[in-house]
Design brief:
It is a single chain. The protein has a single domain (about 20-185), classed as 3 Solenoid (UDP N-Acetylglucosamine Acyltransferase, domain 1), CATH 2.160.10. It is of the alpha/beta class and about 200 residues long. Strand 18 and strand 19 (about 185-190) form a beta hairpin. It has 3 helices and 19 strands. It is globular and about 60 Å long. Strands 2-5-8-13-16-18-19 form a 7-stranded mixed beta sheet.
Length: about 200
């Protein structure tokens, strides 16, 4: 993820965000404004089940690395496309907020369900200037972040792991684990059945 050339926040002691100052450069803000306008005009109205290739192309135009077969729903919010990596079969579901102030990576087959929040930034509450701190997020291959769950800055959701609906992950989730609650606690192990077998077999 380091080769994405992540954008660093400005020094809060210089810009005074608590008094209305900016946390990011003017160039960054203009880039995000341009993408927001393009997405609103050309993507947000798209039917959900169609035009995924078109939406992926728009994201790539602004620097995202989107593999063929990835799926971004039209009502997803992406803060900065060039901080987004999605491998084959990865999905950002309806209403997902991808607040990628630092890079966010979805590995192959990762699913982020409706209205989940991927938040790659936080503020230092001990700092009088309330400095913004950012850290990357990675959603592992075949992992599932369920509806309305929250993934915080610096968290890695391991391969095949599940964060249950409305769960809140502030620490890494082990591969093939199931976590639930706020803060998320391990409640089980994910075991995949053989293809074609039902839950009763």
């Amino acid at each position: 993820m380091a080769d994405l050339n992540p954008i660093a926040p400005l020094d809060a002691a210089d810009t005074h965000p608590l008094a209305g100052g900016a946390s990011f450069s003017l160039a960054n803000r203009l880039e995000r404004l341009a993408f927001g306008v393009v997405w609103a005009l050309l993507a947000r109205w798209n039917p959900r089940g169609t035009m995924r290739g078109w939406r992926n192309a728009l994201l790539r135009l602004f620097g995202a690395r989107i593999a063929r077969g990835a799926h971004v729903y039209p009502d997803v919010t992406v803060w900065l496309p060039r901080h987004l990596v999605m491998e084959t079969g990865a999905t950002l579901g309806p209403g997902v907020d991808c607040y990628n102030m630092a890079p966010i990576t979805l590995r192959e087959g990762a699913i982020v369900s409706q209205r989940a929040f991927l938040c790659a930034g936080n503020h230092d509450h001990r700092d009088p200037a309330f400095q913004l701190i950012t850290a990357p997020i990675e959603i592992g291959a075949k992992a599932w972040v369920a509806a309305e769950a929250f993934v915080g800055p610096g968290v890695t959701v391991g391969e095949g792991a599940v964060l249950a609906a409305r769960g809140c992950a502030s620490r890494d989730l082990e591969p093939w684990s199931i976590h639930a609650g706020n803060p998320a606690q391990r409640v089980g192990t994910r075991q995949m059945r053989e293809a074609g077998k039902s839950a009763n077999q």
